[in-house]
Amino acid sequence: MLPLYRFYRALRRMPNPRLTGLGSGLFCAATMFLLACLLWLFFGSSNGSLVAYGVLFVPVSALTALWVRPVDLVTAPVAVPIAFVAGLPPVSGGSGGFGGQFMGLITALALHAGWLYGGTLVAGVLVIVRRIRFLAQRRRARAAAAAAGPRTPRRRMPAT
Predict the structure, then answer these.
(1) Could you tell me the pLDDT band of residue 160, with boundaries at 50, 70 and 90?
(2) Which of 15, 31, 101, 106 has its CA at a distance of 20 to 30 angstroms from the CA of residue 95?
(3) Residue 45: which H helix or E strand, with range?
(4) Cβ atoms within 10 A of the Cβ of 80, count?
């Protein structure tokens, strides 16, 4: 029980940024591109680097869904698949000119679509849960305001 409590406390100390819709998309795309470049440096354009890229994509998509503002929640499941494709070229393994690179990208997308679907599903579920909690919190705040009674309007000072 003690390690779980330590893990919970460590999570509570982490920063809790609130990104806009565009900011969350840029965060996810930039992070995935940087991770793909690091994987390319360590592993090259092998199948193992694509699997590692997919494994790293899932937590990045979860962070994107957790760090987006409540107003922009719908953008996270849209930005996550775009970021997957944006970061894929360094590890896709294409050779030759533009045609070879493009075919490598399409092949990598076809063979590792499970990671793309999994990360998008994680982001979608987290967004739905956050949206339900946000709406329930708003409903409770409205009920508390209604229970407090009607507000008295402020009197304006007469203009002189």
Answers:
(1) low
(2) 31
(3) none
(4) 29
96 secondary structure, DSSP code: S
Residues 6+ apart with CB under 8 A from 101: 89, 92, 94, 95
Q: Which three-class secondary structure state does DSSP give residue 139?
A: helix
Beta bridge partners of 19: 68
pLDDT at 1: 57
Phi, psi of 96 (to 5 degrees): 85, -150
Q: How far apart are CA 83 and CA 27, in angstroms?
A: 9
Quickly list H helices, the chain. 2-13, 21-43, 47-67, 76-87, 98-111, 113-147
pTM (2 d.p.) = 0.78
3-state secondary structure of 75: helix
147 pLDDT more than 70:
yes
The burial of 8, by beta-carbon neighbours within 10 Å (0-12 exposed, 13-18 middle, 19 or more buried), is given as: exposed
The length of the chain is 160
Look at residue 18 and give its three-state secondary structure.
coil
Distance CA 69, CA 19 (A): 6
Higher-pLDDT residue of 121, 18 = 121
Residue whose tokens read 């590692």: 52
